[in-house]
Structure formats: structure tokens, C-alpha cells
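Bench log, entry 3. Co-assembly request; chain sequences pasted below exactly as received.
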Amino acid sequence: MRTTFWTAVALLGAFLVETALGRLLPTPGRLLDPFLLVVVYCAIVGGETHGMLAGAAAGWVQDAHFGGRILGIGAIAKLVVGFGVGYFAGRLLLGGTGVRALVILLASTADALLVQWLASVFDIEVTLPGPLALAARAAANAVVGGLFFALLERRARSITP
Amino acid sequence: MAFAVADRRRWPLLVGLILVHLAVISHQVDGGGGVSLLQGLVLRALLPFQLAIKGTVSGASELRRSLARLRGAYDENLRLAEEVRRLELLVQERSRQSQDAAGLRELLDLKPVLPLETVAADVLSREGVPFYRTLSIDKGTEDGVALDAAVLSPRGVLGRVIWSGPRSARVQTLLDRDSGAGVLIERTRTTGVVSGQVALSDAGSPDLVMKYVLEQADVVAGDLVVTSGLDRIYPKGLVVGRVRSVGKGAGLFKDIRVEPSAQFDSLEHVLVVLGRASEDAAGASAR
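Structure output for the full assembly:
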């Protein structure tokens, strides 16, 4: 119950960050994906089930508020990404800021590719950002996420007796 | 761990969730999408938070702007006074022209081409993901905003409403690859359809593509592009943009790029057309 609550709070935070960025920047979605950071963090900390449920929830909120006419494409992509990250987090040691930033980079790329692939499968017209734009977005996610995860971890250590 | 599920159950859960999502997506694709119950619930639940963050950020931005404005207030005041004098003269001239036009319309027994009733709306959020060109506004069905209502800016057409809740709505801009608007070249009355580009990179131009214009058609760079009203969404005669380039396309059609008049990147307020565009189009056709 506590995990669900904090996941919901984190998703709400991501939503507010994305909305606030939209007021300050013309194209926030092309720069950063705070929902993905929440999904990756949940997956690393809570495992594949937590990751995929957080991914599905994040994807639906993102689709409903920022998506196109067809909903669920982003949700399914984040669901798979959440599961994938959680799966590997349970089997590999994903500690350290650099490694986690790399995980976010890969997750961000996988998420974008999944959305594009699913859109083509369902014959849904989506704008296809160029490889450079996707790489830049993944890198921005990795940097921001890596630093944010490090801050969270430091705070968690300071609280834990 | 709160989500501890036995190893053997995780994969079936993943597969089950994926199947449910695929079914939901398939249902929307078949049914046209845009008005799902789940979307409505999510949007309604999060609207208060979105309004709160909009108010906070707008307030902070306004404060920052106010402080900046104070610095050059005197010079700005002088410049504005001069501008007001110039505009007053312009208004008088426009007023005279408008009276002349009204007289001519009466003479020709024509009604005004675009008797549009609109409602002003604030932009709540825009473009949260890179795959769609949509934005949210703070007006919904309670304000008369209907599905497929045309959305305008002072400079030109922005897009149409693809979802409308009680107090908010989502707008698909013309930049979206899935969008489409019936247009015509004002000079030659050549018709076509504009939509977002096939592949937009971040560094690419935000031009629109005008499709289905035959090779023989007379279109040159600089031509004004306005809505044709034939799509029954956008009222006839609204400015969409200007032709930036004309090239040879694949097959029978020209490759025409249109520079949109609306400034999509700096939107804060929009106008939503109330009522049906089809009535205008039908009226225009009848005339």
C-alpha cells in the first residue's frame, strides 16, 4: 500500500513537472520524459512487477494528457520498459550513478523505438523524431535521471539509521 | 516488497497486461478513438493539479515579467503613446473601410463570410511527448467546446479539438502528422489538404505539407493558403499560412511546403470556434 502511494505521488510529480515544463519551454516532450524516470526508478528499486505496473500507469497518464487520438501506445511501451528494467535489475548489479544513467539511456531509447514500432503496427500516424533528436532526449533523461537517483539514494541513506 | 509476485506469475501478468493494452488500442483504432472513458477519467482527475501548476508557473512568470517591465517603463510608455496615436489613425481608416465593405455587402446581398462565435481559452500544457503535436486548453463542454471544434490563434488556424471534457479539452495542432485540414490557395482557388510533415526532426522546419495538388495547378511561393471549409471542421476563409516552396512531388502531385501563420511554439491563449463549421461551409456553398 505504501509503495502504491509513493508511486502515485511520484507519477503526480512527473505530471506536474511535465506540465510546468510545458509552460516554460515550447517543446518539453522533446527534451525530457519525467514519467520514464519514475518508471525506471520503480523498476530498479521494486523489480519487474512494480516496474511494469508503474509503467502502465505512467503511460496511461502521459497518453491521456499529452498523447494523440489513440491511447495506450505509450502505456504498453512503458509497461514493457518497466518490466525489462526490473528484470535486469533483479539479476544484475545496477548500482552507481553511471550505470543507472546508462540504464535510463537504454530505457529511453527502447521506449521511443517501441512507441514508433507499435504505431506502425497499428497504422497510427505519429511524428518520427530523427535519431539525433531521440539520442539527445535519451541523453538528457540519463543525465537528469542519474543525478536525481543519486540524490534520492543519498537522502535514503541519510534517513536510514 | 509490496508488489512481490511469485516468479512464475510475473510473465503471465506481463503477457496479460500487454494483451489488455493491445485490445484497448485495437478498440480505439476501430472505433475512431478520441473519446474514451478512461481518458476522460484521467483528465478529469488530474485537471485540478494541472490548473494549480499552470497558475503557479504563470504567476511566477508574470512576476518576473513585471519586474523586467518596470526597468524600461518610461521608454516603453513613450513608445506606446506614439503607437496608440498611430493605431488610432489606423482604426479610423479601418472603420471607414469596414463601413464601405458593409455597404458593398448589403449592395450585393451577401452575408458576412465568417460569422464565428468563439470562446477564449488558456493553454494548460503542450507537447508532452515527441510523437504528437497536441496541447491542452482550459475550456470544455461546459463552455460549449465540442469535439472537432476549430481552434484558432490571432495569426491563423491552430488545429481542432480531439477530446473535450467538462472543463478542459485537448487540441490536435496542424503540425501533428495525423492532422488534416481542407485548404485552398487564395489566389487561384486551387484546393488541397494540409497536415504535419512526414518526418520532423527537432532541427527540421515546422512547415506544413499541402497534399493532392496536381502538377498542372498554378501555385507559387508566397501564395496565401486559407481553409476551404470542405472538411466541415474548419470554417471557410481562415488563414493557414503562406506557401514557402513548390517542388515536383511523387506521381501526379506537387510537393508544396506551407509556412504556418500561427506561432505554435509560443501559444498561451487560443480561440475555440463554437457551433458547427459545416453550417458555414454549407452556407458558403449555397451562396
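The helical segments of chain A are 2-24, 34-46, 48-66, 73-89, 97-121, 131-159. Chain A touches chain B through 66 residues (CB under 8 Å).
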